[in-house]
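Tutorial, part two.
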Amino acid sequence: MTILDKIVRHKMEQVEQRKELFPVKLLEKSVFYDTPTVSLKKYLLREDKSGIIAEFKRHSPSKGDINPFAKVEQVTIGYMQAGASALSVLTDEKFFKGSSADLKEARKFNFCPILRKDFIIDPYQIFEARSIGADVILLIAECLEAKQVKVLAGLAKSLGLEVLMEIHSEEQLSKLCPEIDVVGVNNRNLKDFTVSIQTSIGLFDKIPADFVRISESGISDPNAIVQLRQVGFQGFLIGEHFMKTPNPAKACQEFIDRINAIEDLLENAIA
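Running the prediction step on this input gives:
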């Protein structure tokens, strides 16, 4: 059984428990439930932003603790001040030591798109995402059938949420549907956990151009962002590279500054 299988199995059990404790009728009473959402698509396409979706991530199953004592308010405000286009917040408790409270905290202090980063396998989780202040949900093609993607994405859209579908291979593109807003290519090989941005580069032209396209995982070099932008990618999800430092917001700022410096040098060279 892979780690993804273990996570999905646990998520199924957890969702059933949460349905009993917090029924949808209760979620609908949240102060966040009817508030207007912020479009990830629009923010990724803004020329005054970096295209970076900066992630708040304390822990991962493969790396262990990354930054267990990081403060949501401090890090997320710093990310947005640094020029990030959006936030991603882990809400899985067992495997990533995140929580819904983390996303609520980020929502309280930031007017920007916020992605709920979790393993969504049940419609209940989408109502939950709306109730905690998320603007975008993640659907991982690896653990969902095409019919599930269609149903979950349709529900999300009906609640005013945008949808990011994450793929690992060309075959998973068959699960795309019109309700998807953003397609993310995960650069991590699920068999051996190696990471290469060539995965994104190889799949770019195979993703229909009417979707916003982003690259995810293993991006730690500003030169990689420049290369991915030249290919045509409009967004880049980065978490661990920033979060493993004592000051993630500062790391994000320095990373964006370096990207801008590299692109300025390239423009001057061409001129």
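The longest strand covers residues 162-167. In part three we will examine how such features are distributed along the chain.
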